[in-house]
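Re: weekly structure request thread

Next one in the queue (242 aa):
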Amino acid sequence: MPYRRLPNTDQARMRAIEAALEKGKRVPMKDLAFSYLSLEKLQAIYPRLSGSIRQLNSAKQNQFDKSREYGEIFKKAKLYLSHFVQVMTFAIIREEMKPDIRAFYGLEVNSQRLPALNLEKDVLEWGERIIKGEQQRCMKGGSPIYSPSIALVKVHFESFIEAYRHQKMLQNITNRASEQMNQVRDEADKLIQEVWNEVEERFNVFSEDVKREKATDYGVTYVYRPAELKKMEADKLQTNLF
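Done, posted below.
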């Protein structure tokens, strides 16, 4: 026997509510299989659900559209910071600069290891350190490092900061839209369940097959279990053979 399955996607929720609302338009209230109070609730939640779906989809799309551009800016900032440290390290290896200048940038003096720049927080942290360190070193009489210069590094670092803040803003918008969507989903699920319970209760006087047929017309969804589907296929095949 098939069992009733509540909607598990937003589109399925919309279809369930639309089916019930359509019945509310076409069927006289005295013959409607659910109450007038439920009809009012359906009419109220429908625009909220559809609006929340649009807002969430729009927020996700905006975030996705900007993510590729943000990724390129992120990679460029990492590249310039890494190249700056490499150029400084090569100057130390060539003995054009002393190893102790690495301390200005918060780097280990006796290590040639590059700072980790895999994560956003790494780039934010090391960008500040390297720019500040180069400025302090030059103020104390040190020769500026070029190719890339700290000015160019700073341009790309500040571009990353701006893109990072914008991306975080888009993420917050998406998160708020998602929270609102979850709240409306919960309300919609409870209401759909209440309406479907009313519909099935109204048609309980009929046989199971007739009840399901009438309830389906109101948007109630029934599905067969895998074993039942296999048995139905087997019975159909056997019938065709004879």
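The chain has one domain: 3-241. The first helix runs from residue 10 to 26.
Next request, please.
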